[in-house]
Design goal:
Elements: E1 2-6, H1 13-22, E2 36-39, H2 45-54, E3 60-61, E4 70-76, E5 93-98, E6 112-115, H3 121-132, H4 138-151, H5 162-175, H6 178-192, H7 197-202, E7 205-209, E8 214-222, H8 234-244, E9 249-256, E10 261-266, H9 269-279, E11 287-289, H10 296-300
Parallel strand pairs: 1-2, 1-4, 2-3, 4-5, 5-6, 8-9
Antiparallel strand pairs: 7-8, 9-10, 10-11
The protein binds manganese (II) ion.
C-alpha cells in the first residue's frame, strides 16, 4: 500500500522540494502512512545542488520506483491533468498544494485544494507547517527555502509576494543557511547558462496537448539568458529540440535575471500574433523582447486557449 507525493513531469525545484517537505506533514494532512515521493522525468541541476546542500537524498523516479497499490496521492505545484505522471489517477488525489491558474479543479473530486497566488508552492507548504505548529527538520526547512528561492527567482519574479519573503525568513530562523543557499543557487543559474544550447532549451519544457497540436513551453531563468539568442546554433537547436520532443510548436521564454526582461522565441505565426495581441510584443525573425520579466506561469500558460489545453 502506498501513499505518494508527486508533482508534474520534469519537475522544477519548487515541485520536488515541496513533495519532500510534505513527508513530515503526512499525518497532519490525513494520510495514514508517511508519504513516499515518486517523480517522473528528469530532475534539474538546480534541484541537485539544493539537495546536496540540504543533505537530502533525491526522490525516486518513474514507474519502476512506484510501490504497488497506490492508495492516495498528494500533488504539489500542479493540478493540471495534462502535466501529471501517467500513473496518477485523479480520483486518488487527496491533497493539492499549487499556485497556478487554469487548473483542472473539477477533476479531483476527493481533493482538498490549496491553490493561492503566491510565488512558490513551497511557501504554502511552509505556512501549513507554521499553522500546525509542526516540527520541521533543518534539511526539510532548507529544501523549502530552496523551493521558494527557485520559484521566485531570488524574489525578483513578478509573482513574488510578501508571504514568500515571510516564509523564507521564518525558515531561516531554523536553518540559518538562507544566505549560503542564495549564493549556491545563484552560482547554479550562472553555470547553467554556459551549457550547450540544446541542453539549455530543453531543461525546463512543459508540454500541452490537444487533439491536433502539441505545444512545448520552455523556460530558461538565468542571468544573461537573453544572450543565448546570439549563439550561432540557436535556431538549429530550437528546431532539433522541438523535433526531439515531438512538438508542433515551441515557445521559448528566456527570462534574463540581469536585464529583468525576457526574450520570447517562437517560430509559429499564430503564437506570435497571440503574443502581439496580448502584450503588444513585436516579433522580428521569431524573436520579441518584453519590457518586464515574463514567466511561463503568469504570462504564457494563460494564453493557452481551452482548445490547446484540452485532453
Ligand atoms: Mn511552483
Amino acid at each position: 500500500m502506498a501513499y505518494i507525493a508527486t508533482t508534474y513531469v520534469n519537475p522544477d525545484t519548487d515541485g520536488v522540494a515541496g513533495c519532500v517537505a510534505l513527508r513530515e506533514l503526512s499525518r497532519e494532512l490525513g494520510f495514514r502512512e508517511r508519504l513516499t515521493v515518486i517523480l517522473d522525468g528528469t530532475i534539474n541541476s538546480e534541484t541537485h545542488a539544493l539537495f546536496a546542500l540540504a543533505g537530502l537524498e533525491l526522490p525516486s523516479i518513474g514507474m519502476a520506483a512506484l510501490p504497488q497499490g497506490v492508495i492516495a496521492v498528494a500533488l504539489v505545484d500542479t493540478h493540471h491533468l495534462s502535466q501529471l505522471p501517467t500513473w496518477v489517477a485523479p480520483a486518488l488525489v487527496k491533497v493539492i498544494f499549487d499556485h497556478h491558474s487554469h487548473g483542472d479543479t473539477n477533476f479531483f473530486p476527493a481533493a482538498t485544494i490549496v491553490n493561492e497566488k503566491v510565488g512558490a508552492a513551497c511557501t504554502l507548504i511552509a505556512e501549513r507547517y507554521f499553522e500546525a505548529g509542526s516540527q520541521i527538520s533543518p534539511a526539510t526547512a532548507t529544501a523549502l527555502q530552496g523551493g521558494i528561492l527557485s520559484n521566485t527567482l531570488d524574489f525578483v519574479a513578478p509573482s513574488t509576494t510578501e508571504r514568500d519573503r515571510a516564509a523564507f525568513a521564518r525558515l531561516d530562523e531554523m536553518t540559518g543557511r538562507g544566505a549560503e543557499l542564495r549564493q549556491v543557487l545563484r552560482e547554479e543559474r550562472a553555470a547553467f547558462i554556459n551549457g550547450t544550447t540544446s541542453d539549455i532549451l530543453s531543461s525546463d519544457v512543459k508540454v500541452f496537448r490537444d487533439s491536433t497540436t502539441t505545444i512545448g513551453m520552455s523556460q530558461v531563468e538565468a542571468p544573461g539568458a537573453s544572450l543565448i539568442i546570439q549563439r550561432d546554433d540557436f535556431w538549429e537547436s530550437y528546431d532539433r529540440e522541438s523535433a526531439r520532443l515531438g512538438l508542433d510548436i515551441l515557445v521559448v521564454n528566456l527570462a534574463d535575471l540581469t536585464a529583468s526582461m525576457s526574450v520570447i522565441a517562437v517560430s509559429d505565426r499564430r503564437w506570435q500574433q497571440r503574443l502581439n495581441l496580448e502584450y503588444r510584443l513585436v516579433f522580428d525573425g521569431g524573436l520579441a523582447w518584453t519590457s518586464e520579466l515574463f514567466l511561463r506561469k503568469s504570462h504564457l500558460v494563460p494564453l493557452l486557449t481551452h482548445k490547446d489545453d484540452g485532453r
